[in-house]
Write a structure and sequence with these properties.
With 199 residues, this protein is mainly beta. Helix content is 3%, strand content 49%. The protein has a 4-stranded antiparallel beta sheet with strand order 1-2-3-4, with no helix packed on it. Strands 5-6-7-8 form a 4-stranded antiparallel beta sheet, with no helix packed on it. The longest helix has 5 residues.
Length: 199
Amino acid sequence: MRRSESKSEIPHFNNNKTTESGDAYWENGPNDTISQIRFSNVSKVEDNPEFISASSWDSTIRVWEMNKSYSSIETKFMGDCNFDAPVLGHWWMADNDYIIAACADNWVKLWDISKNSVTKLGEHKFWVKDVFFNSHDNMIISSSFDGHLKFWDGRDSRPAHDVNLEPYKIWTFSYADPLLAGVLSDNSIFLFHIETILK
């Protein structure tokens, strides 16, 4: 079978002009594959500007502001941060002033957006894959290909809690308070109630 040579129907970036459907295509995208895209935290999207962030294998997290009206979406590139290693995942803190980064240099890092500074929070033995923030307990949760779920309270470079799932890698996990669910490299799924870990 001969492969079609036709180009994609998706329009190129065009100064954030919207299509007839109201979709917007954004400028200043990363230079490598996007690993994750996230919405910021807003109480009511209709009344507040919202931000969207993208982490990438080019070692950056980039942020755009998105404003929606009845008939269109407008976006504005706000800036980026370089983490010196591919960023495999990220998460907005509750106040939208910080973004947590899961980095391929084994570190969980915190980007202070207003100061544009990066702090190392804690280290795994292998790539960090996913990060979440548990606002109820004020804990950052990270998972890694080293088979560990770690909980960080920001006061110490050592984790406050460490769940060892070795010898399996944690491919990915998700958090919806109070439950943690994830997938291991043996294709099994784990499910934890966070209170059983933190008590």
